[in-house]
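hey so i finally got around to running the thing on that chain from the lab meeting. sorry it took forever, my laptop kept dying and i had to restart like 3 times. anyway pasting the input first so we r on the same page abt which one it is
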Amino acid sequence: MKITSEQFVKQNKGINSGKDLAADMLDAIFRNIKEEPFKIPDETYDDLMYTFFSPEREGWLMKQGGSWKSWKRRWFVLNDRCLYYFQHTAENVPKGIIPLENVRVRSVEDRDGKQFVFEIYSDMAEIIKGCKTDSNGTVVQGNHKYYRLSATNEEDRDEWIQCIQESIRDNPFHKIISDKKAAIRRRSGQRTAPKPNETS
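ok and heres what got predicted. didnt touch it at all, straight out
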């Protein structure tokens, strides 16, 4: 339904804390709206691709599996404080997502015949937030205490570590909860321990 400038001015009477805005100001707003109509953007699944247009870093890495400790080649994209991994570079839906929150990254000794290994881990020995798609395409929560990755050379590994370190965000709420749990465990441990002067 189209309305005139006069109708627009009448509809917006008293919008300035019960007072009217100047008619010429309302008329200017009306003309601006008319010239630049509001349009809801079309949302498509391709919107996810904007995340991957200019990543902070991307490249092939070998990733150790969670349940089976086999190594698979995956295309990794680092952006928006998340590490995404894909089976192929042409895919537009990630196979897994690792939010870089309350985690650390470090190089580790070569293992399982793999060189230039590094891992993303929780220094609070907790499960790392993450998700992946299973063989049926269903999104499932990850169950990793660490993600172990292998780069092609030492320079590549060090650059990945540096980029990931710069992207890691610590959520202070997470640390507060963790400290509270530790304090409760300490207190409950003190209650159950017998006092030195008690005899059995």
